[in-house]
Amino acid sequence: MDGTNHSTVSEFVFLGITNIWEIQLILFVFASFIYVANMMGNSLIMLTVVYDHHLHSPMYFLLANLSFIDMGLSSATSPKMIYDLFRKHKVISFNGCITQIFFVHVIVGAEMVLLIAMAFDRYVAICKPLHYLTIMNPQVCILFVVAAWMLGIIHSVAQLALVVKLPFCGPNVLDSFYCDLPRLIKLACTDTYQLEFMVTAISGIISDVSFIILLISYAVIILTVHKHSSGGSSKALSTLSSHITVVVLFFGPVILFYAWPSPTINLDKFLSIFDAVLTPFLNPIIYTFRNKEMKVAMKRVCSRIGNFRKISK
Fold first, then answer.
1. Which end of the chain is more exposed for a tag (fewer CB within 10 A), N or C?
2. Region 109-138: what's the mean pLDDT?
3. Consecutive H or E run containing 167
């Protein structure tokens, strides 16, 4: 390659999830409900954390940022998927495809870092409770969030820089419902074996290392909790179970996608739907139903909103 993009492809065609009308209808209703519920649930978490002073702590600050990231991940893929379900010609422009890949990888990278930050927060809260407010001060929390987005952007830009200069002269069909890096690279009109291997290896290593760090962190925290017999142990374990569940739901499909040598198309699509559509929806449910403080705070915020509407009328 001489560094110049010789692409003649101006758009890519999605094959979508299925061509069976009945399944498309079910998926349309299901995906639409999940997306709306996801946006409402995560918005409520963010609103509750902002307006309820009882939740003005590092843990809930990070949780609100996780909700914002989940809304972004879902919005980067779900609306296009829902819109395309009944379209015969499912297309996305070349620039639109690159943009979608950029935002998906930025958000996924940011979420990995944020989940590690949340694990560190729980470690400090449980293992070093006397120094918690000193270590997890507002500056550190903001630094975690900024670092998450910066690393996500760097990760995405570094990978896309290798792809945007590839020549795309046909075919232009993606057997998926959204653009992703491995699928796009396969369509280039040149030998991309080494590039495919490098991109998959880098993403796989980042996912595996992050997951291992989180597992070790939570293992240390759980061992510390078991050494204490105080009344707060059950509350700490309940909070940890929510965090661990979210981590497994997020990293499970990602690791399986990159670790599986040659996944079938159906499995590939299922993992994509689970990670891009279901996981952002499940996160607010997990954190809400397993956290009494959050549920009480949400009731307070909802009652305030209800009273405000009555007054405004």
1. C
2. 91
3. none
Spatial distance between the Cα atoms of 251 and 257, rounded to a whole number of angstroms: 10
Choose among 208, 298, 247, 273: nearest CA to 66.
247
**In angstroms, what CA-CA distances link 58 with 63, 122, 124, 132, 228?**
9, 10, 11, 9, 23
Is residue 306 scored above 80 in pLDDT?
no
- Secondary structure E strands in the chain: 11-14, 90-93, 173-174
Q: Taking the model in full, what pTM does it have?
A: 0.87
Give alpha helix (H) positions in 52-93: 58-84
Strands 90-93, 11-14: pairing kind: antiparallel
- Taking 70 as the threshold, does the pLDDT of residue 17 lie above it? yes
Q: How far apart are CA 250 and CA 279, in angstroms?
A: 6
Short-list 214, 101, 114, 103, CA closest to 164: 101
CB 178 within 8 A of CB 100: yes
Q: Tell me the C-alpha to C-alpha distance, in Å, between residue 217 and each of 127, 210, 291.
A: 11, 11, 21
CB 217, CB 201: distance < 8 Å: no
Per-residue DSSP letter, 55: G
Residue 182 burial class via C-beta count within 10 angstroms: exposed 0-12, middle 13-18, buried 19 and up: middle
pLDDT at res. 13? 92
Q: Which residue, among 117, 136, 115, 111, has the nearest Cα to 125 in the 3D structure?
A: 136
Provide mean pLDDT across the span 181-191: 87
Burial 253-278 (b: 16+ CB within 10 A, else e): bbbbbbeeeeeeeeebbebbbbbbbb
Average pLDDT over residues 242-269: 73
How many beta carbons lie within 10 A of that of residue 93, not counting itself?
A: 12
Q: Is the dihedral of CA 244, 139, 158, 105 positive or negative?
A: positive
